[in-house]
Design a protein that fits this description.
39% of the residues lie in helices and 17% in strands. It is of the alpha/beta class. A hairpin with a 5-residue loop joins strand 2 and strand 3.
Length: 392
């Protein structure tokens, strides 16, 4: 039974209602010595309270998507994905031959398709899940499309974007507003080193997570789908850890990405109990994986970067302010600020309408001049502030 969805919530609700009733029925019927009676009654109380706690947990988890599966909850790394050499489709890139196999194909309300893939990346050696959304009309035409790559947070999954953030609904709404035209959306797995948090880093002697998110995903899309190749037509957006990754991917590969968005992101390389030392004790490697260090010490790309955070978000707001103060031209930075909201999926998802309007102007898909202007200065229901970095 999945951790996300209504089935487990229904079971937890039934247990929450049934166990207190069972405790009332059995309270006077317990048998044995006094200590045994106390132990039995205490067990009934604990079971009833445990059911209530379970109901709260599964409801909150379903709303915010903290854990996408039982493996995530228990910290168990997933079994290595396998691509059958016969049924897998091979694709070629500059770094070698990769492969993928297709799982489910779902028709989406916008008339598009959501395709679940298991991909073996030739450059990274990583095998992991990827979701690809093809817009309506893709199969009936020959045009090439811009690309929007979405990166989840730590412990998130590709489905965090489709279920919790409901990003496909947000994309469809932006298209109806005329602020964002059809794009190919790709959502690769971020957490390819579970139970360790590898922070989209090419870990020495470990998972090559950044190469997976950049080189391998680009090879897959360019070889299999009709995508525009210019950096100005490729954007990357992530939340929390994914926001850190989006900034790092933009700064490391400016010829591949022209636009990036960080929702509740942070901008310093992290070392904690979930990551360990990702850089093998090499401070230079840690620096080059820190977006704040990169914008301070390295050549900055002529690209667009938008950061969203809430003033109440202790995990993001201060780090975002430090990064934006340090950024200089030719990197153009913009900021969207919410007065309230914590570091959780629900609060971050509220920014999607304005962020997608902004992205539409950058990716060249906005359908009206007014919408392009909206993309220049984010504004709307959230308290916001836009600032382009123009000083040297």
């Amino acid at each position: 039974m999945s951790l996300i969805g209504t089935s487990l919530q229904i079971v937890a609700l039934l247990l929450t209602l049934a166990l207190p009733a069972l405790a009332l029925v059995l309270w006077a019927r317990v048998r044995g010595p006094a200590l045994a009676k106390i132990a039995q009654r205490l067990s009934l109380v604990v079971l009833a309270q445990g059911a209530a706690v379970l109901l709260v947990f599964v409801t909150v988890n379903d709303q915010f998507g903290f854990y996408a599966s039982w493996q995530d909850l228990l910290g168990v790394p997933p079994a290595p994905a396998r691509i059958d050499a016969i049924t897998g489709v091979r694709f070629h890139g500059p770094w070698g031959e990769g492969a993928f196999s297709t799982g489910s194909v779902t028709h989406t309300p916008d008339g598009g398709q959501l395709i679940a893939l298991t991909v073996l990346g030739s450059a990274s050696g990583v095998t992991a899940r990827v979701l690809v959304h093809l817009p309506a009309g893709y199969n009936n035409g020959r045009r090439d499309y811009p690309v929007l790559e979405l990166i989840s947070g730590w412990r998130g999954s590709p489905e965090s974007w489709t279920r919790t953030f409901r990003v496909l609904d947000a994309l469809r709404a932006a298209q109806h507003r005329g602020t964002l035209g059809p794009v190919i959306t790709v959502i690769p797995s971020l957490n390819v080193g579970l139970p360790r948090d590898v922070e989209c880093t090419d870990v020495p002697g470990g998972p090559q997570a950044e190469t997976w998110l950049t080189t391998d995903i680009r090879d897959l899309l360019v070889s299999q789908y009709r995508v525009l190749g210019s950096a100005r037509n490729w954007g990357v957006m992530g939340y929390s850890t994914g926001g850190y990754c989006a900034a790092k991917m933009l700064l490391h590969r400016p010829t591949w990405y022209g636009t990036a968005v960080a929702l509740g992101g942070y901008f310093e390389a992290v070392k904690d109990s979930t990551t360990g030392d990702l850089w093998g004790g090499n401070p230079a490697l840690r620096n080059t994986n820190s977006p704040l260090w990169l914008v301070t010490h390295r050549r900055r790309p002529a690209a667009d970067f938008l950061a969203f955070s809430s003033r109440q978000d202790r995990d993001s707001y201060a780090s975002t302010e430090r990064f934006l103060r340090a950024a200089r031209a030719p990197l153009r930075t913009y900021q969207l600020v919410a007065a309230r909201g914590g570091h959780n999926d629900k609060a971050l998802a509220k920014a999607l309408p304005e962020v997608l309007d902004w992205l539409g102007a950058r990716l060249g898909t906005a359908q009206c001049e007014v919408c392009r202007l909206v993309g220049q200065t984010p504004a709307g229901s959230l308290s916001s502030r836009a600032s382009a970095s123009t000083s040297g």
